[in-house]
Design brief:
- This protein is of the alpha/beta class.
- The chain has a single domain (about 30-175), classed as Sugar-phosphate isomerase, RpiB/LacA/LacB (Ribose 5-phosphate Isomerase B, Chain: A), CATH 3.40.1400.
- It contains 7 helices and 7 strands; from the N terminus they run αβββαβαβαβαβαα.
């Protein structure tokens, strides 16, 4: 999929960043999407899965498969891992609030999961943060809005430009090292306050 996206991007004179095209050509491009949820998001997951299939996307459903009480890490982590390893292009994770799901997904190296609750937060998560996973709270976001957010999120390209260094710094944090982040051209002054005067 990435090779196809890169080639399409070059044909449309787009810019390729980390194998992704940063021009807005995603409309109509199909992807392989990982889904993961707990019991609270089960119903919304099923609506999202149906919408994705209708739009021609391939869906890999990591569960849960019912509204029976369960623990979200068991389903979110495998969905995020499949995305980080390139088995899927993007991940959609769902829970009651989406907070725990975001935390779990972001434990996977290479995942940039954004908790979104409006169309604008979904758009910005892609345009500014190059999010490869989205988390939605089924108890806080109505199903109709969630579907609109997913459509926007899947068709919004990364803006690149000033956001590129920021995303590279996020990726540097994945190395779990104590090394400093990539330096900016002009270092900001750091002020340390040791006591109140």
């Amino acid at each position: 999929m990435r090779k196809l996206q890169t080639e399409l991007c070059r044909l449309q004179e787009g810019v390729v960043h980390k194998g992704l095209c940063v021009s807005n050509w995603f409309e109509g491009v199909t992807m392989k999407i990982a889904l993961g949820t707990d019991h609270a998001g089960y119903e919304l997951k099923e609506h999202i899965k149906q919408r994705l299939i209708e739009k021609g996307h391939e869906v890999k459903d990591f569960g849960t498969y019912s509204a029976e009480l369960c623990d979200y890490p068991d389903f979110i982590y495998p969905a995020a891992l499949a995305t980080a390893q390139g088995e899927c292009d993007r991940a959609i994770v769902i829970g009651g609030s989406g907070n725990g799901e975001t935390i779990v997904a972001n434990k996977v190296r290479g995942i940039r999961c954004a908790l979104c609750w409006t169309e604008e937060t979904a758009r910005l998560s892609r345009a500014h943060n190059d999010a490869n996973a989205i988390s939605i709270g089924a108890r806080t976001v109505p199903a109709e809005l969630a579907l609109k957010m997913i459509d926007i999120w899947l068709t919004t390209a990364f803006d690149g430009g000033r956001h590129t260094l920021r995303v590279q710094k996020i990726a540097a944090l994945d190395k779990c090292s104590l090394e400093p982040l990539p330096a900016k051209k002009a270092q900001r002054a750091v002020h340390t306050v040791s006591s109140i005067e």
